[in-house]
TrEMBL record:
One of its GO terms (molecular function) is AMP kinase activity. Signal peptide: none annotated. ATP binds at G17, S18, G19, K20, G21, T22, R134, G179. Residues 37-66 are annotated as: NMP. The keyword RNA-binding does not apply. AMP binds at T38, R43, N64, L65, V66, G92, Y93, P94, R95, Q99, R140, R151. This is Adenylate kinase. Keywords: ATP-binding, Cytoplasm, Kinase, Nucleotide biosynthesis, Nucleotide-binding, Transferase. Catalyzes the reversible transfer of the terminal phosphate group between ATP and AMP. Plays an important role in cellular energy homeostasis and in adenine nucleotide metabolism.
Length: 203
């Protein structure tokens, strides 16, 4: 039996606190592709005190969006690495319509396109309570009540509209993000398999 199937070029989208980071990492592992998380790249650069980290720190701490040009550069560099040639899972990019256009242009040049967009749906109150818990546990500086409200407002205003674009392309899988971690992972895997994506062979 061949294990080729449709390439896993995925995007996971959901409000902060939807669990997209956790589920994204699980899905990437199951389908044998790297996760490309812009938030993780920025946080690592801040922790290491790089030039990029210094440029984005204040923006991230306020819960605002890093400028598109800078974010696009980070993503293009990462997607150009050899491990992303056969597939990838984007987490946190694109986050607005202009980033969708940038990503389309980049992928078009490679004769590629996203094969599925996972939309994790979680009620607003549930996202907020998960974020407050994460703030208490991890002490993320962008998880204060004020910053959380700002990030959710930006999600609704700028990020939610990108789903309409992808919905028109017929690639959005809306997944109920309430349940146990395993239940949610199973829902996502089932929906991707139904689209012809194939898990990586067991080691
Ligand atoms: P995240 O971990 O995805 O919630 O990202 C944390 C923060 O990094 C966001 O609140 C933004 O400040 C910044 N960030 C991450 N991805 C992007 C993006 N695609 N565009 C602009 N800013 C971003």
């Amino acid at each position: 039996m061949t294990r080729t199937g449709i390439p896993a070029r995925l995007l996971i989208v959901g409000p902060q606190g939807s669990g997209k980071g956790t589920q994204g990492a699980r899905i990437a592992e199951i389908f044998g592709i790297p996760t490309v998380s812009t938030g993780d790249v920025f946080r690592a650069n801040i922790a290491q005190g790089t030039e990029l980290g210094r440029r984005v720190q204040a923006i991230i701490e306020a819960g605002n969006l890093v400028p598109d040009a800078l974010t696009g550069e980070v993503v293009r560099d990462r997607l150009a690495q050899p491990d992303a040639a056969a597939g990838f899972l984007l987490d946190g990019y694109p986050r607005n319509l202009s980033q969708v256009a940038d990503l389309d242009a980049f992928l078009d040049d490679r004769d590629e396109q996203l094969t599925a967009v996972i939309e994790l749906s979680v009620p607003r109150e549930e996202s907020i309570s998960r974020l407050e818990l994460r703030a208490a546990e991890q002490g993320r500086t962008d998880d204060t009540a004020e910053v959380i409200a700002n990030r959710l407002a930006i999600y609704e205003r700028e990020t939610a509209p990108i789903l309409d674009v992808y919905r028109e392309r017929g690639i959005v899988e809306e997944i109920d993000g309430v349940g146990t971690l395993d239940e949610i992972t199973d829902r996502i895997v089932d929906s991707l398999e139904a689209r012809g994506l194939v898990r990586r062979a067991a080691a």
